[in-house]
């Protein structure tokens, strides 16, 4: 695995891990708030995906080994663009897989840049200001404690400045490439109606999967084989075979 830094247009150093297996396709993993590319969860996700694809993971600004301060999707769009631009030099097909606020980023990039081939959005919020984030519930804080990594926690540097953010719900109809929306049925942080609403509003070839789990990378941690197989099989599916379907009855996922 190659480890290096990329420089963004606003002079932020982005730390990158690149697993090369001489594939023509690459998955770019985009973590959410309070995660890093080197966390146990994302290290395992990258390794599992690397059995079928090349994989690039990176630390968003204000996380891990990258410089700067985290802006909760306001400027992390620049970080993702920098990594995609790097990947375009080496790969014929680029797939974005994002988690939580990282899922918001891959949707925004897919809508605005139109230079990638497929998108997978896991636990994507439709609007940052509507995220429930009920961290006091045991469903939220117990999994957080189980994933405790002090080195990762001490690496997080949030910005204290409020900035405008692009709302995924406002740009979702601009996505043209096939997009897989995945949600956790019991998510206490980003209720599943967020992701389901994005799926319903999207006009691209699309699919929706509801996992019996909670939030973001926890879907992988709870069901690692199912998660990787679901994503891999979907990415391998020819675009002309896509039909707009949900994996389960999701009629109960109303806006709360």
Poorly predicted ranges: none
Q: Biggest sheet: strands side by side, in what order?
A: 1-2-4-3-5-6-7-8-9
Protein structure class: alpha/beta
- SSE series: EEEHEHEHEHHHEHEHHE
Number of strands: 9
Distance between the termini: 43 Å
The overall average pLDDT, rounded, is 91
Task: Assess the beta-strand content as a share of residues.
Answer: 15-25%
Helix content: 25-40%
- Tell me, what's the shape? globular
- Number of discrete helical segments: 9
Largest sheet: 9 strands, mixed
- Rg, please? 17 Å
Write up what this structure looks like.
The protein is an alpha/beta fold and 256 residues long. Helix content is 31%, strand content 20%. It is built from nine helices and nine strands. The chain has a nine-stranded mixed β-sheet with strand order 1-2-4-3-5-6-7-8-9, with helices on both faces. Strand 3 (25-30), helix 1 (40-49) and strand 4 (54-58) form a beta-alpha-beta unit. It is globular. The model has no long low-confidence stretch (mean pLDDT 91).
């Amino acid at each position: 695995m190659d480890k290096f830094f990329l420089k963004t247009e606003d002079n932020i150093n982005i730390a990158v891990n690149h697993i090369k297996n001489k594939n023509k396709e690459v998955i770019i993993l985009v973590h959410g708030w309070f995660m890093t590319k080197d966390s146990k969860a994302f290290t395992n996700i990258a390794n599992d995906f690397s059995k079928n694809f090349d994989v690039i993971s990176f630390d968003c600004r204000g996380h891990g080994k990258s410089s700067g301060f985290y802006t909760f999707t306001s400027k992390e769009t620049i970080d993702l663009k920098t990594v995609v631009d790097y990947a375009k030099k080496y790969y014929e097909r680029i797939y974005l897989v994002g988690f939580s606020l990282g899922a918001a980023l891959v949707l925004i990039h897919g809508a605005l840049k139109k230079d990638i081939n497929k998108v997978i959005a896991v636990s994507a919020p439709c609007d940052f200001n509507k995220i429930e984030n009920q961290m006091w519930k045991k469903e939220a804080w117990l999994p957080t404690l189980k994933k405790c990594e002090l080195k990762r926690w001490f690496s997080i540097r949030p910005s204290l400045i409020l900035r405008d953010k692009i709302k995924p719900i406002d740009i979702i109809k601009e996505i043209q490439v096939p997009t897989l929306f995945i949600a956790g049925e019991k998510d206490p942080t980003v209720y599943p109606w967020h992701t389901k609403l994005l799926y319903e509003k999207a006009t691209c070839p699309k699919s929706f999967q509801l996992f019996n789990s909670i939030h973001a990378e926890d879907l992988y941690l709870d069901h690692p084989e199912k998660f990787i197989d679901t994503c891999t099989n979907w990415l391998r599916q020819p675009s002309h075979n896509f039909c707009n379907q949900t994996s389960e009855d999701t009629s109960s996922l109303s806006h709360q």
